[in-house]
Specification:
The protein is an alpha/beta fold. The strands form two sheets. Strands 9-8-10-11-7-12-13 form a seven-stranded mixed beta sheet, sandwiched between helices. Strands 3-2-1-6-5-4 form a six-stranded antiparallel beta sheet, with helices on one face. α8 packs antiparallel against α9.
Length: 364
């Protein structure tokens, strides 16, 4: 253990040893961690709630190696990466709260995710084998979007001699150099100023696949579509909870007059949408519940006739399960309950259409 280890390092190590995802520290509050998606509290008799000065010391320790460490007092927020050598990497967010400070540290696993261990549907391999077009991965923060994309990407570079350029904030998984394919990873904030700049640079970097990071605004959406239209495979993440919601969220970046043109471009370029959420697995751990949309002739027409046909997409995903490998979120919930992987109560609480799910499961 290094001589300059601090209490915050001990807490981050504890998070790692318990395979937790997040550490939550706030002035005057008990220390908390997220384990398998649930908040676990460290009893005050084992670790007293930190004072304002203790939290400030933790923050100063976390940012001490930054090129230009900001002054903690007076800051509203600070974002950075932090590494415990030979342990793990962490994404750090510092926030001003109630005239003091809080810290949320997200653990970034160092091991590239294993496709089989994650029990991802095999059809995701087929989706990753597209040579061009747009693939979107939706879900809330902490739903495993980046992990799923990394598993798909790793499978591709193991099998094909491709050049992948990733735009990340921050860089998470490090890919090996002994694969047929190669990955150039660029980090927002250190290697480039923004996703927009990264997408603009990408087209000069001879990529076959572009991992475009998170799509948030109209300019980035347009650039991602342009890259997909010019022969590249582009993958990006969106904060959305369903496949239909993913398209709606992107549509919202455009004015009413621009939305028809956007829909036409999406219908032409979109190859698939994967939306996921992590739920507690019976017996411990978490499992990804996944909605999968694959664009075929029917789905493409539904997208083109968006106003009248969008509501029919979930049913089309369920009907296409055997032929195309598509599935709705609630359909996958049903399968996981029937296979005794998750509880009915967790499934019902997370269903897109709870009343329909209750009838689907014969519980009404």
């Amino acid at each position: 253990m290094a001589d300059d280890w601090h209490l915050i390092d001990q807490l981050l190590l504890l998070l790692h040893k318990n395979n937790g995802s997040d550490l939550i520290v706030k002035t005057g509050d008990r220390i908390r961690m997220k384990l398998d998606g649930r908040v676990v509290t460290i009893p005050p008799e084992k670790m007293a709630p930190p004072t304002h000065d203790q939290v400030v010391e933790m923050i100063e320790h976390l940012i001490r190696k930054l090129p230009n460490p900001p002054k903690v007092e007076g800051s509203h927020n600070i974002d950075c990466q932090y590494t415990l050598e030979d342990v793990s990497h962490y994404r750090i967010h510092v926030m001003a709260t109630a005239r003091s400070f809080g810290i949320v540290a997200r653990r970034i696993p160092q091991e590239i995710p294993n496709f089989e261990k994650m029990q991802l549907p095999p059809v995701l391999n087929e989706i990753a084998d597209n040579r061009n077009g747009l693939i979107l991965v939706g879900g809330a923060t902490g739903s495993g979007k980046s992990t799923t994309l990394s598993a798909m990407l790793y499978r591709v570079i193991q099998r094909r001699p491709v050049h992948v350029v990733t735009l990340e904030d921050p860089i998470e998984f490090r890919y090996p150099v002994d694969c047929p394919g190669t990955v150039t990873q660029r980090e927002v904030g250190s290697d480039l100023e923004s996703y927009e700049q990264g997408l603009n640079d990408c087209l000069r970097e001879a990529p076959d696949i572009i991992l475009a990071g998170e799509i948030r605004d109209k300019k980035v959406i347009q650039m991602a579509l342009t890259a997909a239209e010019t022969g590249h495979l582009v993958a990006a993440t969106v904060h959305a909870t369903t496949a239909v919601g993913t398209i709606q969220r992107m549509m919202g970046a455009f004015s009413a007059e621009e939305q028809d043109a956007f829909i036409e471009r999406m219908a032409e370029s979109l190859r698939a949408i994967i939306v996921q959420k992590l739920l507690p697995r019976k017996g411990g751990g978490r499992v990804a519940v996944i909605e999968i949309l694959i664009v075929n002739a029917v789905i493409r027409q539904f997208i083109l006739d968006w106003e009248e046909k969008a509501q029919e997409i979930p049913r089309a995903l369920e009907e296409g399960h055997r032929i195309y490998g598509t599935q709705s979120f609630d359909q996958h919930l049903q399968m996981l309950v029937e296979d005794d992987v998750i509880s009915y109560e967790d499934a019902y609480a997370n269903a897109v259409f709870p009343e329909d799910f209750e009838m689907r499961m014969g519980r009404n």
